[in-house]
Amino acid sequence: MFKRVFVEKRVLDSDQYHHILKHIKKDKVEVIDKISDIWGRVKKPYLQKRGNLNLFIGKKDGTLIKEAPDAYGLGDEKHFYYVHAYNCIYECQYCYLQGYFNSPDIVLYINHDDILKKMTQTANEHPDCWFHAGEFSDSLALSHYTGELETYFEFFKNNPKTKLELRTKSVNTKELEKLTPLENVYLSFSLSSHKGGKLFDNKCPSIKARIKTIKKMFDLGYNIGIHFDPVVYDKDFKEDYQEVFDDLAKAIPLDKISYISLGVVRYTKDVYREVQNNYPKSEISTGPYIKSFDNKVRYNKPMRNWILNTLKQMLITSGSRPSVIYLCME
């Protein structure tokens, strides 16, 4: 998967690094002082990830826990995400990471003990808060490399008032299947229509495969969340999404889903410019967008409200609980 692997000198003796080393060829490894000396210093085109993807392994300095923006999750609790990785092996055409970093190369931060110390401080200040994994990466796609999930499960087992969400499009659940589900851990999958998945979710598991995995993990006892986000409008969106709602309802009871978010496709100005450069012929870059109140490029508010409320009512009709559906970033 990776053309070159860069490892910080200060982690060479760590157990986490040696766990990752089992999955990569040693002749690809180059020892460096700091990730920041190389990664992102010179802009690397996003689409070079298709044939020239590198891996960086080291420690995260600075901010390890960030407070999430408003309307990021369900409820009034505080929401935070922790920074354990940068970038993703998938290539979703709408992904904001293509305009967020200077490089598509993967970074794995392995100083989990430092992250957990900061989590402990945050949980002491906000006992009922949520922590989210997967803001800057996919939380499961490389979990067999990192072996970190068991460590975080131990923390949440010992801190039952706090909650963990693992956000993913992956079907790589081998590490999770080794663990005992916890009441305060939620596995959430991002879904789109079957057509949208084929058009825009490059390199990702199909929607059908994700729904199959959702059923498997639900049957194992995991709490399931669903993110229908981002929704990309076309004239057949109601029929396309009803098909997915029906397929999901055949896999698990919709009233057993812990929460469901709905959100439309949206970009910052810089991300939208990258999307247009990377996918000029895609429907993803030619929508009826405007510059919104928060300086994001997205559909106008009446259109957003119509799309999201239409889908919300369709979900309720299909069997979802109204109280667990929320509008993301609205």
Structural topology:
Elements: E1 5-8, H1 15-21, E2 29-32, E3 55-58, E4 65-67, E5 79-82, E6 85-86, E7 91-92, E8 106-109, H2 112-125, E9 130-133, H3 143-146, H4 149-158, E10 163-168, H5 174-177, E11 185-191, H6 194-200, E12 201-202, H7 207-219, E13 223-231, H8 237-251, E14 259-264, H9 269-278, E15 290-291, E16 297-298, H10 301-318, E17 325-327
Parallel strand pairs: 1-2, 1-3, 3-8, 5-9, 9-10, 10-11, 11-13, 13-14, 14-17
Antiparallel strand pairs: 4-5, 6-8, 7-12, 15-16
Helix pairs in contact: 7-8, 8-10
Describe this structure in words.
Helix content is 31%, strand content 21%. The protein is α/β, with parallel strands linked by helices and 330 residues long. The protein has one domain (5-327): pyruvate-formate lyase- activating enzyme (Alpha-Beta Horseshoe). The strands form four sheets. The chain has an eight-stranded mixed β-sheet with strand order 4-5-9-10-11-13-14-17, covered by helices on one side. It has a five-stranded mixed β-sheet with strand order 2-1-3-8-6, with no helix packed on it. The radius of gyration is 20 Å and the shape is globular.
